[in-house]
């Protein structure tokens, strides 16, 4: 029998850098979300899962307070939330269930291009604009650097031009925003990516089973995304060398060719990512008919 509140509630970003990837991940996991629903909560049609669309900064608290069972959020937001707590509240507040393969970025200190940077002492008594005051203070305190905080919620990168600050501490992914604003990175404060967290406290066996199923599927989706199915013909004398070029392909399937006794066909799954370079190296070893295929789903 289904108990009350037996649906697993997941909080994810409503609109922003993590929202598309979060939705895609759940869709890939086979969860059919009714995308027509525009409200705060959407219901999955084929699993007992509800999605709550919120601002990313609210996700840690929603999980900590038990309003939702799971959350998809950047580690930067989690760490900032943690550091913002009073000392006695800095305990284990949620579980990180798995790392996700999106939302990758770094929180960096950047300064104007026309300023020379020697070392961290540069920041002594400077004005630094950021939306991450706690991560910044935590980093600079360890280096015994005093600074003046210029707390901004958005458009941090314009602060030096407006003479509001001498430097900024902001998230960077491609670096294009810094470039456009005449700034360059000099120190990495924190490296981040998205993760799946769960609330503490007892859950029913029913919910635990759904969550475990979801974690297995997420891990399968991530594994499939970083893996490729490779088929090629290789000289029998070079099999070991071929395998050594392909990460994770230690156990290939080997098949005879109809009309060539010097070569065999090899089928394998590999997590090799530098594919053009690797294909050139395979070709140099005498491999031919190289096919690289994406993998739709994977379960070990
Ligand atoms: O409205 P809401 O509060 O939900 O969203 P938000 O505006 O606070 O957050 P959003 O959507 O900008 O970011 C959500 C999360 O995505 C962050 O907490 C990070 O975990 C992750 N993430 C990954 C990023 C970036 N990459 C990123 N590049 N968050 C923000 N940026 C911004 C950065 O602040 C800067 O303005 O993108 C710009 C730099 O990007 P590049 O590519 O030019 O370097
Ligand atoms: Zn936010």
What does this entry look like structurally?
- This protein is an alpha/beta fold.
- The protein has 3 domains: 126 residues, D-Maltodextrin-Binding Protein, domain 2 (3-Layer(aba) Sandwich), CATH 3.40.190.10; 88 residues, 3-Layer(aba) Sandwich (D-Maltodextrin-Binding Protein, domain 2); 68 residues, 2-Layer Sandwich (Alpha-Beta Plaits).
- The strands form 3 sheets. The protein has a 6-stranded mixed β-sheet with strand order 2-3-1-4-11-5.
- Helix 3 packs across helix 4.
- It is flat.
- Bound molecules: phosphoribosyl ATP (PRT) and zinc ion.
- The site of phosphoribosyl ATP has 21 residues, from helix 3, strand 9 and helix 5.
Task: Name its key features.
single chain, 300 residues, D-Maltodextrin-Binding Protein, domain 2, Alpha-Beta Plaits, 3 domains, 6-stranded mixed sheet, flat, binds phosphoribosyl ATP, binds zinc ion
Helix content: 25-40%
Oligomer class = single chain
CATH T-level topology of the largest domain: D-Maltodextrin-Binding Protein, domain 2
Question: Percent of residues in beta strands?
Answer: 25-35%
CATH uppermost class of the largest domain: Alpha Beta
- Cα(first) to Cα(last) distance is 31 Å
CATH architecture tag of the largest domain:
3-Layer(aba) Sandwich
The H-and-E topology, N to C, reads as: EHEEHEHEEEHEEHEEHEHEEHE
- Give the CA-based shape: flat
Structural class: alpha/beta
Topology readout:
Blueprint (H helix, E strand, L loop, with lengths): L7 E6 L5 H10 L12 E3 L5 E6 L4 H6 L5 E5 H9 L10 E6 L5 E8 L13 E5 L2 H10 L4 E5 L15 E6 L3 H5 L2 E10 L1 E6 L5 H21 L2 E8 L3 H7 L7 E4 L6 E8 L4 H10 L3 E7 L6
Helix pairs in contact: 3-4
Bound molecules: phosphoribosyl ATP and zinc ion (ZN).
The site of zinc ion (ZN) has 3 residues, from loops.
């Amino acid at each position: 029998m289904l108990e009350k509140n037996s649906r697993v509630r997941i909080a994810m970003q409503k609109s922003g850098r993590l929202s598309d990837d979060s939705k895609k991940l759940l869709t890939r996991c086979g969860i059919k979300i009714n995308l027509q629903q525009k409200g705060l909560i959407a219901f999955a049609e084929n699993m007992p899962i509800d999605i709550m669309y919120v601002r990313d900064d609210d996700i840690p608290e929603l999980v900590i307070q038990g309003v939702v069972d799971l959350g998809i959020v950047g580690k930067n937001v989690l760490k900032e939330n943690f550091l913002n707590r009073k000392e006695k509240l800095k305990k284990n507040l949620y579980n990180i269930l798995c790392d996700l393969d999106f939302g990758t970025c770094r929180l960096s200190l950047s300064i104007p291009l026309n300023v020379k940077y020697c070392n961290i002492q540069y920041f002594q008594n400077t004005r630094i604009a950021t939306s991450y005051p706690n991560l910044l203070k935590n980093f600079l305190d360890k280096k015994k650097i005093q600074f003046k905080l210029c707390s901004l919620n958005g458009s941090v990168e314009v602060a030096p031009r407006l003479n509001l600050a001498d430097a900024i501490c902001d998230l960077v992914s491609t670096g294009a925003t810094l470039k456009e604003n005449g700034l360059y990175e000099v120190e990495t404060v924190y490296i981040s990516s998205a993760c799946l967290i769960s609330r503490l406290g007892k859950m029913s066996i029913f919910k635990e089973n759904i969550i475990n199923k979801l974690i297995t599927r997420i891990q399968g989706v991530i594994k499939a995304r970083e893996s490729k199915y490779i088929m090629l013909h290789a000289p029998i004398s070079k099999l070991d060398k071929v395998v050594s070029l392909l990460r994770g392909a230690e156990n290939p399937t080997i098949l005879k060719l109809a009309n060539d006794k010097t070569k065999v066909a090899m089928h394998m799954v590999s997590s090799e990512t530098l594919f053009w370079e690797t294909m050139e190296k395979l070709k140099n070893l005498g491999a031919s008919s190289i096919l690289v295929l994406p993998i739709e789903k994977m379960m070990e």
